[in-house]
Amino acid sequence: SAMRPRYLTPQEVSLHNVPEDAWVSFLGAVYDLTPLCDQYKGDLLLKPIIEAAGQDISHWFDLKTKDIRTHVDPVTNTVTFHTPQGRFLHVPPPYPSTDWANDFGRPWWRDTSYQVGLLSKKTRFIRVINTLTSQEHIIEVCTEEILSEILHRYLKYNAHAGSYTWKHAEHELDMGLTLDENGVPDEDEEFLRLRLEPDDYRQTLYLCYNDDLTEA
């Protein structure tokens, strides 16, 4: 089967917010621009990118063309790239210039080698209770993730999470399906509508240690 994409939460992207570790998200994907920052260290055109590290920069782009937004320059009356945050790497200057080197090949925003995953369209928080130790954690997951990927997120709390059977309301969960497909619906919008505090009604997953499972 084809490799599944890695889904990331905006919170995870936000942790990578320095030149030595610079991620951004745009148009649904997440990019690690650290090598770019390294390559152009000290270049003034890097400034807007460094300032945006850890954030979503979809507003820099035209949704249709997937390219940098353009506008008509009031001075020259020609169409130029619209960069209110300041011109950045691989964006040509608005006026003809002799020191503009366009030999970099593909601009960074079209270079998929920087892509590290997809930005989750919707995240949700779930409560995970270990029935063996009674430990409880609330973790943020991507709605697109299947249970085995959620298990991977939970490993930092319990390295042995793979030795457990994951259950919800007495039903064993299929690790190859999403929460939704497993009948664990995302009710955030419903809570919002009813003005209920989601924290009080979190969907709970139970980890049952496999040695404890006795056939009924």
TrEMBL record:
Subcellular location: Cytoplasm, Cytoskeleton, Cilium axoneme
Span of domain Cytochrome b5 heme-binding: 5-120
Keywords in alphabetical order: Cell projection, Cytoplasm, Cytoskeleton, Heme, Iron, Metal-binding
InterPro entries: Cyt_B5-like_heme/steroid-bd, Cyt_B5-like_heme/steroid_sf, Cytochrome_b5_domain
This protein's GO CC annotations: axoneme
Keyword Lipid biosynthesis: no
NAD among keywords: no
UniProt-listed GO biological process terms: cilium movement; regulation of cilium beat frequency
PROSITE patterns given in the database record: CYTOCHROME_B5_2 (PS50255)
Main location, first listed in the record: cytoplasm
One of the record's GO molecular function terms: metal ion binding
Family the entry assigns: Belongs to the cytochrome b5 family.
Described purpose of this protein according to its UniProt entry: Radial spoke stalk protein that binds heme under oxidizing conditions. Required for the coordinated beating of multiple cilia maybe by functioning in a redox signaling pathway.
Protein name: Cytochrome b5 domain-containing protein 1
Species name: Petromyzon marinus
